[in-house]
Amino acid sequence: MTAVVTEPVDLRDGRAPLLITRPASSDALIDEAAFAAGDEYLPYWAELWPSAVVLARRVAAADLRGLRVLEVGCGLGLPALAAARAGATVVATDWSADAVAAAAGNAAAAGLTGSVTCVVADWRDPGPLVAAGPFDVVLAADVLYEARAVAPLLTLLATLNAPQVILADPSRATAEPFLAGATAVGWSITSTQAEDRPMVRVHELRRDGTAVPP
Ligand SMILES: C[S@@+](CC[C@H](N)C(=O)[O-])C[C@H]1O[C@@H](n2cnc3c(N)ncnc32)[C@H](O)[C@@H]1O
Question: A GO molecular function for this record (predicted)?
Answer without folding.
Answer: 2-polyprenyl-6-hydroxyphenol methylase activity
